[in-house]
Amino acid sequence: MKPSVWLRMDSWVRHLVPFGVTLAMLLVTAIPIHLPGLAGMVPMLPMMGVYYWAIYRPDLLPAWLAFVIGLLYDIISGTPLGVNALVLLLVQGVAAGQRRFFLGKSFMVSWWAFGLLAASASGGTWVLVTVLLGRAIDPTPLFFEYLLTMGLFPILTWALARTQMAFLKEA
Amino acid sequence: MKQSGAVGRLATLRLLAQRFAFVSLVVAAFALMILGKADIVLIERVRTSVADAVAPILDALSRPAATVAEISESIRELASLRAENARLRQENQRLLHWQTVARRLDAENAVLHEHLNVVTDADAAFVTARVIGDLGSAYGHSMLLNAGSRDGVRKGQAVLSGETLIGYIAEVGDRSSRLLLLTDINAKIPVVVESSRTRAILTGDNKARPKLNYVAGNPSISVGDRIITAASGAAFPPGLPIGVVASTTDGIIRVEPFVQRHELEYVAIVDFGLGGILPFEKPPMPERRRRGADAGGGN
Question: What global pTM score does this model have?
Answer without folding.
Answer: 0.79
